[in-house]
Specification:
heterodimer; A: about 110 residues; mainly alpha; Arc Repressor Mutant, subunit A; B: about 180 residues
């Protein structure tokens, strides 16, 4: 499987815990990256649009009853999206492990 | 004020993207303004707009398949050959049209263009017939009319040639089971 582009990877990983709406997704990406990745609205929704098109995420807004104040659009990973996210996670783990193996001393204390 | 300006700036995006996500993007900006430093949110949004507006406009073109690009390129070069290349150019144009038909046919096995060969033939013959009728009726053509007549003649030849190529290709096309 081809690696996901960076923004797609961050969103897929952020959705591993379950459905989120746009703003919560943005905050989750920021949290998971330790504040290093802060997406703007155009990047976030552009990436969401691509992931929806590829069938990796799905909108779940109407899947459950929500209060009127919570009528935001929610998204969650599809089965394919979960596989893609876990594959990305494995790829990152393998990359870190290889770098650690080849360059001893680079692992955090 | 910031939200209103941002809403206006969203018109820089393609209308379909704006229709799908415009309201969500404004809501997201308002959430950020509520929770973060205004200057930071505004500067991030400006940079985001500068990067994502061109991307959203370019994406539909980048998604087009290589096949479509090849067919368009072949047909464009064939048209240029027909207009500027004389008899040799016309022969080159026929070859290029043949190539574009093959590429197209390979990419869309369920909707072969070869099935429409008679339309091309009919169009070319119709255009040629109109040209003959008009030149016979008007006699000698003025200089401007001569260029128009030549362009029409080459177009009709091109259509007839495409019809012949498509017709031949349809004969060699394997039939669906």
């Amino acid at each position: 499987m081809k690696p996901l582009p960076a923004a797609s990877m961050h969103i897929a990983l952020a959705l591993l815990d379950g459905e989120l709406h746009g703003y919560a997704l943005m905050r989750r990406v920021e949290e998971l990256s330790g504040g290093a990745v802060r997406m703007g609205a155009g990047t976030l929704y552009g990436t969401i649009s691509r992931l929806l098109e590829r069938g990796l995420i799905v909108e779940t807004t109407d899947a459950v009853d929500r209060e009127e104040a919570e009528r935001r659009r929610y998204y969650e990973l599809t089965a394919d999206g979960r596989v893609a996210a876990i594959t990305e996670l494995e790829r990152l783990r393998m990359l870190v492990s290889r770098v650690d193996h080849h360059l001893p001393g680079t692992a955090p204390a | 004020m910031i939200s209103r300006t941002y809403r206006l700036l969203l018109h820089l995006y393609p209308s379909s993207f704006r229709a799908d996500y415009g309201e969500d993007m404004v809501a997201l900006l308002e959430d950020q303004l509520r929770d973060e430093n205004t200057l930071r949110v505004v500067s991030r949004s400006v940079v985001d707009l500068a990067i994502t507006v061109p991307i959203q406009h370019l994406e539909p073109y980048m998604r087009r398949s290589t096949t479509s690009v090849l067919v368009v390129a072949f047909v464009s070069i064939a048209a240029a050959f027909t207009v500027f290349g004389g008899p040799v150019g016309l022969a080159g144009a026929v070859v290029l049209l043949g190539l574009s038909v093959l590429v197209w046919q390979r990419s869309r096995p369920d909707h072969p263009p070869t099935a429409n060969w008679w339309r091309f033939m009919l169009g070319g013959l119709g255009l040629l017939g109109i040209l003959v009728a008009v030149t016979t009726a008007t006699g000698e053509l003025p200089s401007g009319g001569w260029y128009l007549a030549m362009a029409t003649l080459f177009t009709s030849f091109g259509l007839i040639a495409a019809g012949i190529i498509l017709g031949i290709a349809s004969r060699f096309r394997p039939r669906a089971a």
